[in-house]
Amino acid sequence: MALGRSVAKAVVTVGGRRAGQAAARVVRTALAAPPGPVIASMDDSVASMDDSVASMDDSAAAQAEGSTSPDRNGPPAASAGASVLAGASVLAGALGAARRPVLLLGAEAIPRTAAIRDALAGRGIPALHTYRARGVLPDSAAEAAGLVTGGTMEWPLLRAADLVIGLGVDEAEMIPASWDYPARTVLVTEPGAAPAGPGYRGYFTGATVLTMPLTRALEVLAAGPGHDWPPDAGHAAKADAARRLTAAAIAAPGRLAPQQVVATARACAPPETIATVDAGAHMLVAMPLWEVPEPRRLLVSSGLATMGYALPAAIAAALCAPRAPVIAFTGDGGLGMTLAEIETAVRMSLRVIVIVFNDAALSLIKLKQKPAGQGGDDAVRYGPVSFAAAAGAMGAAGAAVTTERDLAAALADALGRPGPTVIDASVDPAAYPAVMDLSRGQAGRRSVPGISRALQVRCPLSDVLGGASASAKEHAQ
């Protein structure tokens, strides 16, 4: 229980006569902004909850229900209004002095997706997304500039910016690194969504924190002056990053590069596909290359970066959105941790497509341990495993693929099948060091041309099948 308090919003004991009340508080606390996990311990011998935990839950629940009680939600309405006006003035002043602003969109901005799109459409201001915020702007938008992770792939834009504005960004999504960009940073958070204040000393060094409704910040942004970014600057940055990742793809005969797996899957799956991504080296490829039209179509365990996330998340997605195709991108290590859940998908007749990047190694761990002289084969490699055969043993369909064409064919079959499919992709990990350097190393620190065209990857079977995406759409309806 004590360990749980360090990683969860609250720890609650549920039992006795107040079980229903405690369960209701658990749900309200989990949903209160910012949403997050609550650990519930079931114990019938306990008649009531710990008072401190109950108090915490009451406060979070009050926020979730929109309570205006001054002692629970900050200053009175008049004072809060003055604070919003002051924050809007600070933001307007920062925008007025800037010529190259960049936006960071975080997960807390998702509820304001429509307003953000309206405010930014046609403005040409580049917007970087955190992992969980992907799709707030569709990847097809000129302003969609790719990812911000705390790595170096976003360096070209942020280094050129003279103002960085974060909307609903949770710093827990950022990897440990120095925030050393010269531009002024302004973070805007919804009231009650973050504990930061004027004395902020968090991840974004030197940032100004403004607590105000994001809708008000968007009004200021929409009314702001012009800028000096080249046309299509955001799109150019994202396309250039994708191009560099793709250029780093190498694979021995009979194996696939991770980039080939993601690009082929994206080209062959319909746009509305929900993708879940496990932690691992493949994540560094899947997250920037998988494009989405809207939020919550790309799900990832950021922050804690939990291995074994993709398959359970895909099952949940299939239950919540039964008409949408669902693809789980997972490494062999992550799938090994949750392999039995394939039987769950079989039993529930869920159309979940699991694509496993099979290189018989914990590749990301190996990359991270190598500089310290660790990560030897005895620690990070294991014998060959046929996940396709394991899937068949549990009643799912299985396919082993070694080429893009084989992968496209397996995907077409899986999209037309009512139950789960495991696609066992034989992957060459040779490209991962270059991918790591592009994402988090010095290779990411390079200038980007002002204008470039997006990559155009076609499904290998499109000429034969008339477009696997079109076929997949028919199956989804």
Description:
The chain is 39% helix and 14% strand. With 477 residues, the chain is α/β, with parallel strands linked by helices. It has three domains: 2-73, no CATH class; 77-229, Rossmann fold; 242-476, Thiamin diphosphate (ThDP)-binding fold, Pyr/PP domains (Rossmann fold). Helix 2 links the parallel strand 1 and strand 2. Helix 18 (404-415) runs parallel beside helix 21. The chain is globular, with a radius of gyration of 23 Å.
Q: Which homologous superfamily in CATH is the superfamily of the largest domain?
A: Thiamin diphosphate (ThDP)-binding fold, Pyr/PP domains
> What kind of sheet is the major sheet?
6 strands, parallel
The top level CATH class name of the largest domain:
Alpha Beta
Silhouette: globular
Strand content is: 5-15%
Instruction: Classify the helix fraction into a percent range.
Output: 25-40%
Rg on CA atoms, Å = 23 Å
CATH topology of the largest domain: Rossmann fold
Number of strands: 14
**Largest sheet: spatial strand order:** 5-4-3-6-7-8
